[in-house]
TrEMBL record:
It is found in: Cytoplasm. Acts as an anti-CsrA protein, binds CsrA and prevents it from repressing translation of its target genes, one of which is flagellin. Binds to flagellin and participates in the assembly of the flagellum. Interacts with translational regulator CsrA and flagellin(s). Keywords: Bacterial flagellum biogenesis, Cell projection, Chaperone, Cilium, Cytoplasm, Flagellum, Translation regulation. This is Flagellar assembly factor FliW. One of its GO terms (cellular component) is cytoplasm.
Length: 150
């Protein structure tokens, strides 16, 4: 299917790239149809709205920058997404890119959880998890040892 977008012009969307968010994203109540598209570089993806050509989010695989990121998906959320086995679940975080990579952030508090078999997803708020909506993705470089003799 061909889709007109503001950012990318005309895109050819494959069926396996379609994603339904029946409850939408907070603040975007009438926008439920999306395409999940790989970006030029891993671990990034684009979540392009099919209902609004102007709306596109940058997502990331949170485990790339945060290998210890983990949470338990509540049973009611898993049921809503028709998830019976959590091993096949995909998780993405909305990413905010600033002028400097050191200021770019990921929303770890409310990941987008996707059932790829059903092509359905939901932004799940992880109450009382300790995660932030603006977690910096830049991990500082280790200190370099001083050069010199013994």
């Amino acid at each position: 299917m061909k889709v007109e977008t503001t950012a990318w012009g005309t895109l050819e969307i494959e069926e396996e790239q379609l994603l339904s968010l029946p409850k939408s994203l907070p603040g975007f109540d009438d926008i439920t149809n999306f395409a999940l598209l790989p970006a030029e570089q891993e671990p990034f993806y684009y979540l392009q709205s099919l209902d609004n050509a102007d709306l596109c989010f940058l997502l990331q695989n949170p485990f790339y920058f945060f290998p210890d990121y983990q949470f338990n998906l509540p049973d009611d959320e898993a049921e809503e997404l028709e998830i019976t086995d959590q091993t096949g679940v995909e998780v993405y975080c909305i990413t905010t890119v600033r002028s400097s990579i050191k200021e770019s952030t990921a929303n770890l508090l409310a990941p987008l959880v996707v059932n790829p078999a059903k092509r359905v997803g939901k932004q799940v708020v992880l109450h009382q998890s300790g995660y932030q909506t603006r977690q910096p993705i830049w991990i500082s470089e280790p200190d370099k040892p001083e050069e010199g003799g013994v």
